[in-house]
Amino acid sequence: MGDCKKCPFYKTEPVPEDLAGKVNLTEWASCDVDAVGLAAADRIANQNTHIAALQQEIEKLRAQLPRWIPVEERLPEERVLVNVLWVNRDPESYYEKIKGIPFSDTACFYRERWYWDSPAVIDLLEEYGKDEFDLVDDAVEITHWMPLPEPLEV
Known about the structure:
Layout: E1 10-14, H1 17-23, E2 27-31, H2 33-64, E3 69-70, E4 82-88, E5 103-110, E6 113-116, H3 121-128, E7 140-147
Antiparallel strand pairs: 1-2, 3-7, 4-5, 4-7, 5-6
């Protein structure tokens, strides 16, 4: 048997008179069962409160994370580079294995069209209003986008 005296619920009680002679004791050790139950209930209540607070914190942190925004929900600002998810619905025969498989990349939206990121895409769109070289092919469907992360401060 363990060392019950270390337990916070350990107590000694007088042995009832009708048993004292039979067991040859005047007191015996026992457990304060009522206190155990109350302490357990308090601990459960405290843990439930703590769990609820953690769940609220998780939801706050989730709201701070960038999320993929469906293009049906809204489009990004024009001529602003964003991360995109795209799918090639009709690839050339030598790319048949990628048909329907989502990929991610960086692109910008301008005048109802998507353009892949390149060193000159934003400048060309601002100056000439077009950039045929970086124009996303009609077989490619951009399904979602999210803002680029903030640049690292050095």
